[in-house]
Amino acid sequence: MSKRLWSSSRCLLSVVFSFLLLVMVGATALAARIYRVQPGDTLYQIAHYHALTTEELVKANQLATTLLLPGQALVIPPATPRADEQLYTVQPGDSLFRIGQRFQADLQWLRARNKLTSDLIYPGQITRVPKPKYVWNIPALMARHPGKVFLNGTTTAKRVALTFDDGPDTEYTTKILDLLGSLGVKATFFLKGNNIPGQEWVVARMIREGHIVGNHSYSHPNLRKYSPEGIMREIKTTEELVAKITGKEMALVRPPYGEMTEAGLDRLVGAGYVMINWSVDSLDWRLGSTEQIMNHTLPQIKPGSIILMHSASEGGRDLTPSVNATERLIYALREMGYEIVPLTELLPVWAYK
Ligand SMILES: [Zn+2]
Questions:
Q1: pLDDT, mean of residues 107-126
Q2: 107 and 239 assigned to the same domain
Q3: Which of 132, 148, 166 is the last residue of a domain?
Q4: Which of 165, 166, 169, 284 is catalytic?
Q5: 301 and 235 share a domain?
Q6: Which of 26-30, 179-183, 249-253 has the lowest mean pLDDT?
Q7: What does DSSP assign to residue 273?
C-alpha cells in the first residue's frame, strides 16, 4: 500500500515538477529556445545552426566544458543581427542561391556573414540576410507628382514597350540594335553615362535608327543615398554627354534600381524630367537561360507593359541569353497580338526637352 502511495505521490510530484519546468522554460522561451542535443552534435554545429558563436552558447548555458551529452538541454539565445542584417529561418526547398535572389544578397556576402564553409544549408537553420535598405516608395512618389512617375502605360490597347538599361556597349547593345533593326522594332535605351566615352557611335546609331534614349545616371548608384544636388549631377553629366552626340536633352530618367527620393524627384520634375520605371522585370541578367527569361516574362505581359531588359553587362556577365530572349520575345509578343512601341507612344511624355 505504502508503495502504491509513494508511487502515486511520486507521479504527482513529477506532474508538479513538469509543470514548474514548463513555466520556467516557457518564460525563457520568450527570448530563447531549448535544444536537445542529438548524438554526434558538437557545440560548434549547434551554435552555427542558430547563427551563434560557440562562446555565446557556452555563456548562455554556463557550460564548464564543451563536451555535450545526447539528450542534454541547451538554452539557445536569440542571435543578434548586425545593423544591416535580419535573421531568416531556412525553409524546406531553400538553397543559398535562392535565398540570395530573394534578399538580393550575393553569395559571397551570405557565405561570409554566415561563416559558411560550403553552400549547404538546412531547413530550420538561422541565417543572416541583408536587411532591406529602403521601403519601396514608388506609390508615394507617384502620388507626389501625378503624371511624372510611370511604371506602365494606362492603355487597354495591346501595346507594350521594350526598354534596355545600362548601355551603351559594343558587344550586346550592338547585337540588340541589329536585331531590332532587322525586326523593325523601335525601343528605348536608358544610358549609363560612364559607358559612353569611346562608344559614342553606338548612341549615335540608336538615334539614327529611330530609337529613344533616356537617362540612367552617370555611375549607376542607388540615388536614394544621394542628395538632390548629387542626383542632379548624376543626371546632368549623362545628359551633357548625350547632348554632345545627338544634340538632344533627354527628358526620360530611369534611376538605377528604380530608386529615387522625394526631394530628388521634386528637383527632377521641376527641371522638366519624367521618371520611368517598369512593370515587367525580365530578370534577364539574373536568369541563366533564354528559356527561363521567356517563362518568367511572358505571363506578366499586359496592355501597357513596360518591359525591363539590359543591353550591357556589369562585370563581364554574359548577356547572350538577353539578346536571344529579345528576339524570342518580339516574336512571341507579336504572336500574342501585341504591338511593340517606343515609350513616347505608350505614355503621355516627350523623350527630349
Ligand atoms: Zn541599370
A1: 94
A2: no
A3: 132
A4: 165
A5: yes
A6: 26-30
A7: -
> 50-66, pLDDT tens digit by residue?
999 999 999 999 999 88
Grid cell at residue 62 = 554556463
Q: Which of 274, 174, 278, 190 is nearest to 238 (CA)?
A: 190
Active site residue 310: yes
Given 48, 211, 216, 310, the catalytic residue: 310
| Per-residue pLDDT tens digits for 220-238 | 999 999 999 999 999 999 9
Query: Has this prediction a pTM greater than 0.70?
Result: no
> Which domain-ending residue is among 91, 108, 132?
132
Q: What are 179-218's pLDDT values in tens digits?
A: 999 999 999 999 999 999 999 999 999 999 999 999 999 9
28 — pLDDT class (breaks 50, 70, 90): very low
Alpha carbon of 325 to ligand 1 centroid (Å): 18
- Running DSSP on this structure, what letter comes out for residue 352? B
CA of 308 to the centre of ligand 1 (A): 10
* Contacts of 156 by beta carbon, 8 Å cutoff, 6+ apart: 303, 304
Residue 8 in any domain: the answer is no
Q: How far is the CA of 222 from the centre of ligand 1 (A)?
A: 10
Mind spelling out the 3-state secondary structure of 213-261? Answer: EEECCCCCCCHHHCCHHHHHHHHHHHHHHHHHHHCCCECEECCHHHCCC
Q: How far is the CA of 56 from the centre of ligand 1 (A)?
A: 42
Domain tally for the chain?
Answer: 2
Average pLDDT, the chain: 90
In whole angstroms, give the CA distance from residue 63 to residue 88.
27
Please tell me the distance between residue 224's alpha carbon and the centre of ligand 1 in angstroms.
14
